Amino acid sequence: MSRLITSDMLARAFEAEGVDTLFTLMGDANMYWSTAMAARPGMRVIHARHESCAVSMAEGYHRATGKIGVASTTCGPGFTQIMTSLAMAARANIPLVVFAGDSPIAASWYLQQLDMAPLAHATGAHYVAVKHIDRLLDNVREAFQVAAVERKPVVLSVPMDMQKQPWPHLTDYTPSAELVPAAQRPIPDPEIVDKVCDMIAAAERPILLAGRGAPWSGARDAIQALAEQSGALLATSLLGKGLFDGDPYNLDLAGAFASDFAREQFAYSDLVIGIGVGLGHYTTEGGYLYPGAQVVQIDTNPRGLWQGLKTADLHVRADAKAAAEAILAGLKTRGIAKPGLRTPDMAREIADDHPDRKEYPVQPGMLDQRRVIEELDRTVPKDWDMVIGGGHYFSIAMTHLKGRPAEKYHVINDFGAIGSGLAAAIGVAQARGDGKVCLIEGDGSLMMHTQELDTIKRHGIRLLMAIINDGGYGAEFHKFRANNIDPSGAIHGRGDIAAMSRGFGLAGHTVNQAGSLGGLFTEHQGANVATVWDIIADDLIPSRSYRRIHYGEA
Questions:
Q1: Whole-angstrom Cα distance, residue 236 to residue 313?
Q2: What's the CA angle centered on 449, arms 446 and 455, to 5 degrees?
Q3: Residue 392: left if φ>0, alpha if ψ -120 to 50, beta else—which one?
Q4: Are the beta carbons of 268 and 207 closer than 8 angstroms?
Q5: Given this model, what pLDDT does residue 2 score?
Q6: Does residue 460 surpass a pLDDT of 60?
Q7: Could you write out the DSSP letters of every residue in 275-303?
Q8: What is the pLDDT of residue 173?
């Protein structure tokens, strides 16, 4: 009979699942397990200052590594804090395991008791409740298997008094990886492939639109070859950004953030083939982006109706790479090769395209954030990870950043929530360990979780943070102004973020002059500490997407 405590056995099981990093905030119901995890050889434990941030850090860790992220909270008020970050992870298909300590089984009454299952299910997460010590290891295995196979967050609920019991069994543990089905690449139906080839043969202005599923599948080269064979232009959804950077026929983003030139090409297109993309509301601009085109959707789980829209005229249930290769082979077999839109003139027009050419006078002592993002893009090397949070600045960042691989963009905007960018960037930076991570975040978002600057300092995490400080909630005050409503309720003033950062022991610089980022970046590289750039942005300059939607420039 082992002398192990159950929390120690749990730590061994998590270690056997390949866990090497835990993001936690300790309380009564998870403190012993968190300590047991820290005792495992080589285990890194990051102690967050807020439970929601611990989950977002685990999300960032997954984005950087592809491994299942692991976070932990106590029960009751610790667990209720993570609802937003849990919902974000569920919407983003992020595989996480959240170890949630639960109230003691044997207690007649417990102050922090709460039925956690309905809350977890409401966010879209899976819930596994440990009810007996004999089933505990099976429950751990189930949590990791569901997270991996279904790509979703899983809450593992373990009663606190069970964790302190002596472990009554042998210490053998079979990890979930030995039971998970081998990854497979679903191939398309040959009859459906023939139909797609027929549609390409009849099309004059085709566009291939790739989403997040395309880089997951490793489909980049196959899609580019298909585009060349069919004469198609290339574009991506927001979450596929960067996949075709460097290709002369790449229109960059489709949908709400598309440039005016890209939008024109979609408007005239007669065939759009979505590859590894949901073709939802934002990607298709509510179904109005390509009104005259026939639409094909290639996805492992295609939906005929998605976000209230008809997604396609023809659906191909297949892996992105397998489908692109099969369609390309079909075209070659039938001798179909078309120049289509891939002409030297088109390449020149794409090269000359710009996401936003409108000029604005800039207020004294402030910066045009469009030009700031361009300067930032020139300054930060292309092999750095870029973590982008949510807010008004978000569309400017995503349209003005160029020349970076798809896997280097981490967009923390699922569920439309702000405030999680900083924590996710900590997770990415901890996973990378090389200091080559840059966060672009808003001042309002940062203020929601400034306490995690202390986490950065305590754990020695090297991170560059570019904070777009427009003195308020830009997403709101620009909408107020567009509708001639007093915006003062959404304006909180420009706090001295640089000084605040220095107060946490980090480097902090106020940035209000164009051309200063190069020198500041060199200084950051030479320092052994995280850096915050407090970028004073002109609050009177709305983004192109806001002007189109809210200011009537559509």
A1: 19
A2: 110
A3: alpha
A4: no
A5: 47
A6: yes
A7: ES----TTTTTTTTSSTT-EEEEEESS--
A8: 96
> Regarding beta strands 305-306 and 309-310, do their DSSP bridges make them parallel or antiparallel, or are they unpaired?
antiparallel
Q: What is the pTM of this model?
A: 0.96
Q: Please say whether the dihedral angle defined by the alpha carbons of residues 423, 428, 430 and 433, taken in this order, is positive or negative.
A: negative
All residues at 6 or more sequence positions from 434 whose CB lies less than 8 Å from its CB, including other chains: none
| Cα 270 to Cα 510: distance, rounded to the nearest angstrom | 49
Helix (H/G/I), strand (E/B), else coil: 70 = strand
Query: Can you give the pLDDT at residue 40?
Result: 97
Q: Which amino acid is at 109?
A: W
Residue-level pLDDT at 272: 98
Residue 467: partners with Cβ closer than 8 Å, 6 or more residues away:
441, 442, 443, 446, 497, 532, 533, 534, 535
Please tell me what DSSP assigns to residue 340: T
Distance in angstroms (rounded) separating the CA atoms of residues 252 and 234:
7
| Alpha carbons 201 and 408: distance in angstroms, whole number | 35
Q: What is the DSSP letter of 355?
A: S
Element (H, E) at 510: strand 507-511
Neighbours of 80 (CB within 10 A): 15
The stretch 194-219 carries a mean pLDDT of 97
Tell me the residue type at 363: Q
Query: If we measure between CA atoms, which residue out of 376, 461, 472 comes closest to residue 422?
Result: 461
Helix or strand or coil: residue 219?
coil
Tell how far CA 402 is from the center of its chain: 17
Predicted pLDDT of residue 3: 81
d(CA 104, CA 32): 14
At a CB cut-off of 8 Å and minimum separation 6, what does 10 contact? 33, 36, 99, 136, 140, 158, 163
User: In the beta sheet, which residues pair with residue 466?
Assistant: 440, 533
How is residue 56 written in tokens? 């977002």
Q: How far is CA 399 from the centre of its chain?
A: 16
CA–CA separation, 435 vs 421, rounded Å?
A: 17
CB 51 within 8 A of CB 29: no
Q: Which of 194, 249, 197, 202 is nearest to 227 (CA)?
A: 249
pLDDT at residue 183, rounded to an integer? 85
The token pair at 279 is 């073709």
- Tally helices (H) and strands (E) across the chain: 23, 20
Q: What 8-state DSSP symbol labels residue 365?
A: T
pLDDT digits (tens, 9 = 90+) for 255-312: 999 999 999 999 999 999 999 999 999 999 999 999 999 999 999 999 899 999 999 9
